[in-house]
Amino acid sequence: MQLTKTVTSYRLNLVLFLLIAVNIVNTIYPKGMGYNAEDYVGFGYELSKYINAATIIVMLPSLFKRLKVFTNMRYMVIMIVIYILIAYGGGISYNFSAASRALMVCLSFIFFEETLRRCNVNKVLLYSYIITLVFNIAYLVITQDRLGMAMENEGHIGGGQGIVKGMIYIIPLLFLVLKDKISAYLFLFCGIVIFISMRRTAILVYLLCIPFVSKRISNQISKKAVFTFLVLLTIVAYYIINNYGYIIEDRFSDMFEASDSGYYGSGRTGWWEVLVVKFLENPQNWLFGFGLGSVAKTMADAGFPFGGAHNDYIEIIFTYGLIGGFLWFSSYWKVIKISRLPAYENTRTLIRMGALAYLFYALPSGGFQTIELICLPLFFNLALNHYTKHENTKL
Question: Which residue segment(s) compose the domain that 7 sits in?
Answer without folding.
Answer: 2-386
